Amino acid sequence: MAIGSPANQTEQGTNDHGETARLFIALWPGAAFASALHAQCGVCTTGPRARVVTPQRVHLTLHFLGNLPRQQVPALVSALRVPFQPFELSFNHCEQWPHGLRVAVPDTIAPQLTQLHEALGEALQGLELPVDERPFQPHLTLARRTTAPLPAPNGPPLRWPVNGYVLVESQATPSGAYRVVQAYG
């Protein structure tokens, strides 16, 4: 099942298309929240070469796993069941990162987000899977290859109540569809 809003569209198990699955763990806001971020961050005026991330695909990656053998997926699904406390993220501005990335960065990092990231990292290490050693920089990528100026922050912060996380497969299709393998929380 392809992703619209991952928290609402979960498919248990794996499909048998290929011997590996390209996986990541993420927080996934609803399309309405992502659309509001697009407007707040001026994504509709990003320039002719820009590649806008559609609201249905906007997510905050917790851990990128890469290609894993499909036979490992059931153990991974089980191991990723870690304690989860709902929390809220607030967004009041965006940033322009290198290579034309337009991102929304939380105003503050909720302790529950850091705890979730760490608990999932420990679960991955318990399965002897590599964990990115770079500092965790939570963000939502909204566009790539944009050179348009950032808009000035205006209006109240956008609030995102986070009620869960998902294990997602990035499928090798022309559209690069995402499929929720498992939803948690």
Q: How would you describe the overall organization of this protein?
A:
The two termini are 19 Å apart. It contains 3 helices and 10 strands, in the order E-H-E-E-H-E-E-E-H-E-E-E-E. The strands form 3 sheets. The protein has a 4-stranded antiparallel sheet with strand order 3-1-9-10, covered by helices on one side. Strands 2-7-6-5 form a 4-stranded antiparallel sheet, covered by helices on one side. It has a single domain (6-184), classed as Alpha-Beta Complex (Cyclic Phosphodiesterase, Chain: A), CATH 3.90.1140. It is an alpha+beta fold and 185 residues long. Helix content is 18%, strand content 30%. The model is unreliable at 1-5 and 7-16 (pLDDT under 50). It is globular.
Question: Could you say how many structural domains there are in total?
Answer: 1
Q: Could you say what the CATH topology is called?
A: Cyclic Phosphodiesterase, Chain: A
Shape: globular
Mean pLDDT: 87
Q: How far apart are the first and last residues' alpha carbons, in Å? A: 19 Å
* Helix and strand composition category: alpha+beta
Residue ranges: pLDDT <50 for 5 or more in a row? 1-5, 7-16
In the CATH hierarchy, what is the architecture at level 2?
A: Alpha-Beta Complex
Our Rg estimate from Cα atoms comes to: 16 Å
Query: Widest sheet: strand order?
Result: 3-1-9-10
